[in-house]
Write a structure and sequence with these properties.
mainly beta, Beta-galactosidase, Chain A, domain 5, 2 domains, five-stranded antiparallel sheet, 27 strands, binds alpha-D-galactopyranose
């Protein structure tokens, strides 16, 4: 009877029972209700478990990664991402914990741009200066909408497919954009995120995921002792409004040089104009791409637990944000307030404000083109 109860929701959600039931140590997907969104629509949580016992929970509201249970060097699992235990808190206030970000991740200067001779004005929802800018897709970006969802198991790996149609004019953007994201938890302890999009009118697109990591376990202190490597010789400096100046500058000799693994806290409080603007690290690094394709963008080592995370991406840039705006007002899953710098983000992306920066790689997607990009967060130990 117990087993039957377990299988019913899986069958309803369309998971192939045969895959769930295979012998050995298979990947599984557990489905549970996660409350209702602001429109009264049902939200669902999917727990993907792989053959090694690693677990990732994702909800179809905002495509939010709510939990990642990764092993430490003794095999002990801890939840290494910041987030909430219920939907109400995500609806009430979140600094994008775990969410899918779009239509354009990061900032667009004053929320304005010109494309094919037409001027567009987006929602301004972020105000580092009085003028403000458009941040992470606007007031109701992809992080705050309900995605259609379909879990499945293929090749003994658990995936969740999410899709969403962003209508023409949403948050000010041109064209109807059809977006699809596939999360896969591989048996190599990788969380793979594949992003796809198509449009019927030229529009900027820059999708990412905004997970906040703490490899000591969420709610377990700050992240300053994490040792970070960024595979980037250059960065895009910003002005006081956190908008890129358009320059691409070498990191060598600055607190932004993470080409040699260095503790996040080692230089974060140094006297430096860029650190002042970001209130710490909140910048885009220009990844060393070599031949291009999927390359190692970053790695993070947490010495106490031994947890090691590597980030691979096809994107040209990465925003490393050190949790400078966390101030204890967001109470986490265990009831512990998320204080200053207790989580960090590694958002793979095209550079901020690219739509207004002709020398940055283009974020424009045109009808007939296919937007396709993959990022992998890989967990291991040392
Ligand atoms: C991004 C931005 C930061 C901040 C966070 C959310 O990482 O670059 O400035 O807005 O999102 O708090």
């Amino acid at each position: 009877m117990k087993n039957l109860k377990k299988l019913i929701p899986l069958a309803i959600a369309g998971v192939a029972l045969a895959s769930v039931l295979t012998a050995g140590n298979p990947s599984t997907i557990k489905v549970r209700p996660f409350g209702k969104d602001r429109n009264g629509e049902e939200v669902t949580a999917y727990t993907l478990t792989n053959a090694k016992g690693m677990k990732v929970e994702i909800i179809n509201y905002g495509g939010i990664v709510t939990r990642i249970y990764a092993p430490d060097r003794n095999g002990k699992l801890a939840d290494v991402v910041l987030g909430y235990e219920n939907i109400e808190k995500y609806i009430e206030a979140t600094p994008y914990f775990g969410a899918l970000i779009g239509r354009v991740g990061n900032r667009i200067d004053k929320g304005e741009f010109e494309l094919d001779g037409e001027k567009y004005t987006l929602v301004r929802n972020n105000f580092p200066t009085e003028e403000g800018c458009h941040l992470h897709g606007g007031t109701y970006g992809f992080d705050k909408v309900l995605w259609k969802s379909q879990p499945y198991i293929s090749g003994n790996e658990a995936s969740l497919k999410l899709w969403y149609t962003s209508v023409d004019g949403e948050e000010g953007y041109p064209g109807t954009l059809k977006v699809k994201v596939i999360y896969t938890l591989t048996n190599k302890n990788e969380l793979k995120i594949q992003y796809f999009a198509e449009t019927d009118k030229a529009t900027p697109v820059n999708l990412t995921n905004h997970s906040y990591f703490n490899l000591r376990g969420e709610g377990n202190g700050d992240i300053l002792g994490h040792v970070l490597m960024l595979n980037a010789d250059n960065m895009t400096p910003v002005d006081a409004g956190l908008i890129p100046t358009g320059e691409i500058t070498p990191v060598e000799g600055t607190p932004f040089d993470f080409t040699t693994p260095t503790a996040i806290g080692a230089r974060v409080n140094q006297e430096d104009e860029q650190l002042k603007f970001g209130l710490g690290y909140d910048h885009n690094w220009v990844l060393n791409k070599g031949e291009g394709g999927m390359t190692l963008a970053a790695s993070v080592y947490e010495p106490e637990s031994g947890r090691f995370m590597e980030v691979f991406t096809e994107e040209p840039g990465i925003q490393f944000y050190g949790g400078n705006f966390l101030d204890g007002t967001n109470i986490g899953k265990k009831g512990i307030p998320y204080e200053y710098r207790t989580g960090f983000c590694l958002e793979t992306q095209h550079f901020p404000d690219s739509i207004n920066q002709p020398n940055f790689p283009s974020t424009v997607l045109r009808p007939g083109e296919k937007y396709e990009t993959t990022t992998i967060y890989k967990f291991s130990t040392k």
